[in-house]
Structure to design on (747 residues):
């Protein structure tokens, strides 16, 4: 079935309403001649500029659309005039053709024809211009007027609206892919290749990190070039982080419900182009320059010793469910790309976003792995954090750790060598999979987050859980050859309260999102220290800063891979908003003016000093789990736990209510060797964590643990530019102030 526009326009010529200008007498100007199309090749997929037969320059177009009846590539000139070129070659379900003379910078899209039968999942509609899933650059913004929907969006009976095909042309309202040619071989780039155990991750938003940075030129703020600017990199280097984890930078679209409220999708978890850097983050334009700008950003970060990890969203796309827009995959082959229910009109939704990619389908799996390899080999990135990774690990229905996706990653010679981080859950049945992903994978450990939050608000019934989280979560990860660095430890992430808000608000305050404060979690495990929100009470403010020092110190002393969130080290606040996904404004942007305030500057300096301490001491970066057994005749063990009495904890102590915990880390018993084969030996440390609201005495363990202890970190002190340096003899009882971490080095 063809649209009215298609019926009025011969194949290969612009359709009516496609932007073809009219002459003064009302007649249409002569259309440009339709370019020749040669057979071309079915691989690689996408639009690839190259030399064709006889050295003729042009672009090869290849699109997988298994059930389609016809495919046209649509070229757009600078005035928006459209030329449609049929692809008549079909090889293994891939439509392809080589078009001579199509050069880099050419804007294009596809129209795909086939059956309209939503009851069986068939939603082809040639009136809709579709973005190439393999487009390497995207020009233009997605808007969502009715013309962009494959069905009649405003049909009177909404219960069947998705079954009525809309015949209006969507081309004027959707962005286009851009032909890109880049032969960069990365020969001058040096990847940091930081070992997992040595990594410190810093989660940031490309736009939000530099949008208010006074050292970044205004025209570069909020862009890839802004993040690459020396002023931005200087902060990362000074802080000591080894990797930035970028919130989604794949081309994404904004949801209709946000646009109608005057908001946008700020976080970017609504992907529509898995090969294209999001164009709105580019200072160099949107006709291909964003690709080179992204690469220059990666190079600059690598030169500073910082890896680049991308937060990627392969579990769903911006096309939502059956009432969502038709932007790309839905119009190319809906049944092939998406998981459908038994009633094929409906989508299986394990993501909460309306649809779920059908990763078991070979061509969908190919799309994802081709995208991942592209970002590694051609864009230079060092790893990925997979949003809702459990949805990718599902076979037909259940989460399966032998699923095709995980199996392909495990054997891929490119992908198995990069950093792989799972968000190990989705919203479907059986979707919570913390601790279940196989070797090669690390995981966001939300049990670490919850436990540390509860400990410092004095809400744990006992300290068993805290002991596991501080020492690497062996209860979750000590199987199948996994190591402590399988646990990505975090207290905050982009989703939820900032660190400052965690100690300033008991409840969320999301009114600015326009959803009557219904959005965002209610399980914040926060404590406002006695006042809700900002306050002039200096005692409350001082307590909050101490709690921030406690949380950061706990995170950076724990075994595993610590992850910080941009701005937490500065005391950034979102004013109690724990779901700022739609706030592209000062609520979400990093506020660099906080560095001008002594209290927040001191917090940043403490964070930097803690990271430096971690880098200097391998006992804080263990590559193997603690054994807890004595290795020598004196009875000294690699890990020991103490009560405030200075005695080793018994089983009964683990089950008793407590606010105080002592953790001894031996630097004498670190497994493994250095690069020259020598044993790894370090200082030993005793960490005292006290979450009680009053001071407590603590008896320092005597021989064989130590004879003297030197205080290295004391979170009760506001200013810590230099180590405190106080020395205590073993066996002495010291006073630990209320809500304090003391880190003591065995002298």
């Amino acid at each position: 079935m063809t649209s009215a526009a298609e019926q009025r326009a011969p194949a290969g010529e612009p359709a009516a309403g496609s932007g073809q200008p009219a002459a003064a007498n009302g007649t249409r100007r002569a259309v440009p001649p339709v370019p020749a199309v040669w057979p071309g090749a079915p691989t690689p997929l996408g639009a690839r500029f190259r030399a064709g037969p006889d050295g003729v320059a042009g672009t090869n177009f290849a699109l997988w659309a298994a059930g389609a009846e016809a495919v046209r590539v649509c070229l757009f000139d600078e005035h928006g005039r459209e030329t449609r070129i049929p692809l008549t070659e079909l090889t293994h379900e891939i439509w392809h053709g080589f078009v001579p003379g199509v050069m880099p910078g050419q804007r294009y899209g596809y129209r795909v024809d086939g059956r309209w039968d939503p009851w069986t999942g068939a939603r082809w509609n040639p009136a809709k211009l579709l973005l190439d899933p393999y487009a390497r650059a995207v020009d233009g913004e997605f808007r969502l007027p009715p013309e962009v929907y494959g069905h009649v969006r405003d049909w009177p009976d909404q219960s069947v609206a998705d079954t009525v095909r809309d015949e209006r042309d969507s081309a004027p309202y959707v962005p286009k892919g851009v032909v890109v040619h880049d032969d960069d071989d990365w020969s001058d780039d040096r990847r940091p290749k930081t070992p997992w155990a040595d990594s410190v991750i810093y989660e940031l938003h490309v736009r939000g990190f530099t949008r208010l940075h006074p050292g970044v030129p205004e025209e570069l703020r909020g862009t890839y070039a802004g993040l690459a600017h020396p002023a931005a990199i200087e902060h990362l280097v000074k802080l000591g982080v080894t990797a930035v984890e970028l919130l989604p930078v794949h081309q994404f679209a904004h949801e209709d419900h946000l646009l109608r409220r005057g908001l946008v999708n700020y976080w970017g978890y609504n992907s529509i182009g898995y090969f294209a850097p999001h164009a709105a983050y580019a200072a160099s334009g949107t006709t291909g320059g964003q690709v080179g700008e992204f690469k220059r950003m990666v190079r600059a970060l690598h030169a500073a010793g910082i890896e680049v990890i991308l937060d990627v969203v392969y579990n769903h796309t911006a096309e939502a469910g059956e009432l969502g827009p038709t932007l790309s995959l839905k119009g190319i082959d809906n049944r092939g790309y998406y998981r459908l229910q038994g009633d094929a009109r409906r989508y299986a939704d394990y993501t909460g976003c309306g649809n779920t990619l059908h990763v078991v389908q070979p061509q969908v799996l190919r799309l994802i792995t081709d995208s991942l390899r592209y970002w590694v080999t051609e864009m230079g990135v060092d790893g990925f954090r997979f949003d809702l990774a459990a949805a990718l690990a599902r076979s037909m229905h259940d989460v399966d750790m032998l699923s095709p996706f995980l199996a392909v990653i495990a054997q891929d010679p490119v992908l198995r060598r990069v950093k792989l981080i799972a968000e190990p859950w989705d919203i479907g049945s059986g979707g919570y999979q913390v601790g279940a992903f196989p070797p090669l994978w690390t995981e966001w450990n939300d049990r670490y987050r919850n436990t540390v939050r509860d400990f410092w608000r004095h809400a744990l019934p006992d300290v068993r859980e805290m002991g596991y989280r501080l020492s690497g979560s062996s209860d979750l990860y000590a199987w199948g050859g996994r190591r402590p660095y399988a646990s990505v430890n975090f207290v905050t992430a982009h989703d939820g309260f900032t660190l400052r808000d965690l100690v300033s608000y008991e409840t969320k305050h999301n009114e600015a999102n326009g959803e009557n404060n219904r959005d965002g979690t209610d399980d914040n495990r926060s404590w406002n220290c006695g006042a809700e929100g900002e306050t002039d009470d200096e005692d409350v403010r001082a307590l909050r800063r101490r709690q921030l020092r406690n949380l950061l110190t706990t995170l950076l002393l724990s075994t595993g891979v610590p992850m910080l969130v941009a701005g937490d080290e500065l005391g950034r606040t979102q004013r109690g908003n724990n779901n700022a996904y739609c706030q592209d404004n000062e609520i979400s942007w990093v506020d660099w003016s906080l560095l001008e305030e002594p209290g927040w500057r001191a917090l940043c300096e403490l964070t930097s000093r803690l990271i430096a301490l971690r880098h200097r001491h391998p006992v804080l970066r263990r590559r193997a789990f603690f054994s807890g057994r004595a290795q020598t005749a004196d009875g000294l063990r690699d890990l020991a736990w103490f009560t405030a009495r200075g005695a080793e904890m018994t089983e009964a102590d683990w089950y008793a209510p407590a606010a105080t915990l002592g953790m001894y880390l031996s630097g004498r018993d670190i497994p493994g060797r250095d690069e020259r084969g020598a044993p790894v030996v370090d200082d030993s440390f005793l960490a005292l964590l006290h979450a009680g609201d009053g001071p407590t005495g603590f008896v320092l363990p005597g021989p064989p643990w130590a004879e003297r202890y030197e205080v290295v970190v004391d979170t009760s002190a506001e200013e810590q530019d230099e180590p405190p340096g106080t020395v205590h003899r073993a066996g002495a009882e010291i006073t630990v102030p209320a809500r304090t971490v003391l880190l003591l080095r065995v002298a």
About this structure: The longest strand covers residues 57-64. The two ends are 82 Å apart (CA to CA).
